[in-house]
Every structure is written in structure tokens, then in C-alpha cells.
Specification:
By secondary structure, the protein is mainly β. It is about 0% helix and about 50% strand. The radius of gyration is 17 Å and the shape is globular.
């Protein structure tokens, strides 16, 4: 497959493999290791990237990382993978609530997913990743999101910034109707 999306986090580069041309499911991959997925590369030395791991067995829409966790988005679900000493194909958490055009972001123990069709942003507490819980939702049709230092930046029909100091009660800090 082709590199569909690329993300970096420190010395790691995450490559999401995109679908090949044609009908890929009819015998194109002889072994599970040949299946598409998410590739982890150590890029400490950019002129010599070293593949360190691969997980998943599907074509994914997006991935974001925070520390030792990778959050992976697919049609209809999202998953959390542990990147430390990773030795298998299994996610440590899976939730059946996403869309193809969803946007994701993570920082610290917070994961956010924008579900444009339902016009909701889900705010998840991932302090115990295997037992992640939906802490709250924000009613907003958001196409792109970014989270840093408990501040959630959302771009939809307008630009909004929310404070997530209290995950159960996100606070709207500011709104900008027109971006120049």
C-alpha cells in the first residue's frame, strides 16, 4: 500500500498505510504480516529510519500519538494501542463510535473525537487507557480539532477554543466567526 498519512511524535514517525489499487481483499495479502496497518519507525536518525513495529490489519483514516499511546481511527470505530514493548495485534481499548470524516486529537490523558455527522465532539478520559470513559460531549460540528495543555481548538463553521480543565464540563473560552 501507499503512505496515506504520516504523523511524528519525538523520535517516532507513524505511517498509516493506504489502500492499494483494485480489490485488495481477494488474496492480495498471503500472510497477516503483509496486511496493511500502522507502521512505527524510529527516526532518531532521519537519514536511516528503522521500522520498529506494525499494528492493526486494516486501512485506517487517521492516527495520533501521545507519549506511549497511539489513537487510531477507522470507519465506525477507534482504538488505542500501547507502543511500549508492543508485542501483538490487539488494541488495549476499542470504541464503536466514529465516522470516516471524524477528526481526532490527544494530549496527556485526554482524547477527543469530532463526529461531524452527529455534530458532537466526544471528550474522553484516558487516564487508564484500557478503561477509557466518555467524560462529556460538546455540541459543535467540527471538521478539525487540536488539543494541547487542556485547551481544545475546534474549526467548524466558526473557530472555537474550549478549556478542558474540568473534563465533565468543558468551558467555551472564545469564538471567532470569520478567519482571515
Amino acid at each position: 500500500g501507499l503512505a496515506y498519512k504520516v504523523r511524528t511524535d519525538g523520535n517516532l514517525t507513524i505511517v498509516v498505510e493506504g489502500p492499494p489499487d483494485g480489490d485488495w481483499w481477494n488474496g492480495e495479502f498471503e500472510e497477516i504480516n503483509d496486511m496493511p496497518g500502522v507502521h512505527i519507525l524510529n527516526t532518531r536518525n532521519p537519514s536511516f529510519p528503522v521500522p520498529t513495529n506494525k499494528f492493526g490489519w486494516n486501512f485506517y483514516n487517521d492516527v495520533c500519538t501521545d507519549g506511549d499511546l497511539a489513537y487510531v481511527l477507522n470507519d465506525g470505530f477507534w482504538e488505542i494501542y500501547d507502543l511500549t514493548g508492543f508485542g501483538g495485534w490487539e488494541p488495549i481499548f476499542e470504541e464503536d463510535d466514529s465516522e470516516e470524516d471524524a477528526a481526532i486529537t490527544a494530549d496527556g490523558s485526554i482524547f477527543c473525537i469530532s463526529n461531524a455527522e452527529e455534530e458532537l465532539i466526544g471528550i474522553w478520559d484516558t487516564s487508564t487507557p484500557q478503561e477509557s470513559v466518555l467524560a462529556s460531549t460538546i455540541d459543535f460540528n467540527c471538521r478539525d480539532i487540536f488539543l494541547t495543555e487542556n485547551m481544545l481548538y475546534c474549526q467548524g463553521d466558526e473557530f472555537r477554543i474550549y478549556s478542558l480543565e474540568n473534563l465533565e464540563e468543558p468551558q467555551l473560552i472564545s469564538t471567532l466567526d470569520d478567519l482571515v
